[in-house]
Amino acid sequence: MKNIAILLLVSMLISCTPQENNKKLANIERIMLAYPDSALTLLQKDSASICEMGKDAQMHYQITLFRINDLQYKPHTSDSMMLKVADYFEKRNNKVLLSQAYYCLGCIYIDLNNHPKAINYFLKAIHTDSINAPKEMLGRCYCQLSDLEDNRLNKQQALLYCKKAYSYIKQTEDYGLTNACLMDMGHYYYDLGKIKEYSSFTKIAKKNILEDHDTLNLRRFIVSEGEKAVYSNNQQKLKKLILEAKKELTPEQQQDWGINMMQGYLHKFLHQQDSALYFFQKGLKIEDPWRKYEANIAMSETKADENKYEEAWALQKEAIKLKNEIDSIDNKSEAEKMKAAYNYEEEVAKREEAEEARYHFMLGIMVAICCILGLSSFVLYLKNSSKKKELLQLRVIAQQNKEITQQKTHIQSQDTLIQCQKTQIENQNEDIQKLENRNNHLSKYELLSSDARNCKIGEQIHFHEDKWNQFRMSEAYTHLHRMINDGLMNYKASDYKKASSAIKEEIDNFFNDYGKRLKVAFPEIKDSQITFAYLVKADVKFSNIAILLNKSKPSITKTSKGFLQLLEKPYTTKELIEFLQNF
């Protein structure tokens, strides 16, 4: 029996030992991060000999081929092959390659715009084998999760994922992704209003980028800082960044959309309208609809500065058309659906719970094996000491008889005690009955008081709802929304101003001087932000607010972000709107 237990333990240890990777594939994987083109050439050259080594090698080959294609930014259109690979390694219990297959599936579902599935597989990749899986792959998983959280405007969670990504990637030689993580962390700190941390990470990122001659990330860095300079109208910083781009970037990189837009805005700030239009016109050549929209807005503002309002209006209409296309492609409801249907933190908790259950299962097996070994030893011991055991049992029986006799005596004494307690219980029952009668009387009184309070609360809720209904039926509210439904472009600026003034007066009338209360609550609030708050309370969308105030959407977005800084809370746009309407 002892030998059987030892054999079980040995077989279990053997089954848990990971198989050694194919040497050719391992050599290719070592160079693919730095030289993906060379790695692909080697893989194609050795593909026949690798696939002859068996099913394991064939499936491993598919993972390596996918990783190389992904590093070359080739789009993925199907998940069928990688699902087979994942199923194969799951059955083989090869957790290292299974985690890599899960990572590949996550990348596929990103390209297929199925974000919930992508997140599920990235989390699977992380938790399947976080000890032996490649550090570079784990870092990339966290990078993808960080980007997805950024898309949900959850900057705090995006920052946490980005920190985890950096902790893994800095242990590898993937300097480009390391620099990208540093830049992203700085970006998230900036969005969270932590300027000191933003400055620190930005300096480190730029220093590393220049030392590594990483022109790809340098272009991203310059464009990102350029956007901030444009929003803050910092002409000196914008000019410095453009000079740095011309000095450090390749001619091809200098033709980047972001670099052209930066140059266009610099000339616009300097009132060099022809030069500004030249660079903005370059931005229109990009096929991306969002970038074409931004270029149209910039050109429209430039034309307006020249008092060429007809041309500006034509560009503005083209921008509106592009924006409608973007909204239809973007499908905002899909983002809300993903947010409601998929909870990242819950998924992480489930995976941790599954890992813990697996750990307890393995621990139980080991304990069972130890118990079997211990039981075998105990049986041998019992056989060698049977006589001693018989004597011990006789002593135990004698002791038990003695204890039984003592217990009988004790039971008899307790019978007498029970009779006394019965008498006490009867007396206590009478007291309890009196207390119950008194309690019933008090309960009736409390119920009457509670009903009165509930009635009062109901009246307050009804009053609040009635006030909102009266406001939404008011002439100013009805007129403003009739203008929006008819199309604001059909009205003049004077109509916008008149409608805005009327709605402000109506809101102050119904909601106790709404603007004054905002000013008292937030002393640093600007007049433009107060006007923005009035229109949000009047159920006006951001796009229509931009038209009513004759501002661009980035300007309105900046105003909403300014509110978030005043609130000092990580609100989403939806939560900001609810706050302003309920204030």
TrEMBL record:
<keyword id="KW-0472">Membrane</keyword>
<protein>
    <recommendedName>
        <fullName>Tetratricopeptide repeat protein</fullName>
    </recommendedName>
</protein>
<feature type="transmembrane region" description="Helical">
    <location>
        <begin position="359"/>
        <end position="382"/>
    </location>
</feature>
<keyword id="KW-0812">Transmembrane</keyword>
<keyword id="KW-0175">Coiled coil</keyword>
<feature type="repeat" description="TPR">
    <location>
        <begin position="99"/>
        <end position="132"/>
    </location>
</feature>
<feature type="coiled-coil region">
    <location>
        <begin position="418"/>
        <end position="445"/>
    </location>
</feature>
<dbReference type="InterPro" id="IPR011990">
    <property type="entry name" value="TPR-like_helical_dom_sf"/>
</dbReference>
<keyword id="KW-1133">Transmembrane helix</keyword>
<dbReference type="InterPro" id="IPR019734">
    <property type="entry name" value="TPR_rpt"/>
</dbReference>
<keyword id="KW-0802">TPR repeat</keyword>
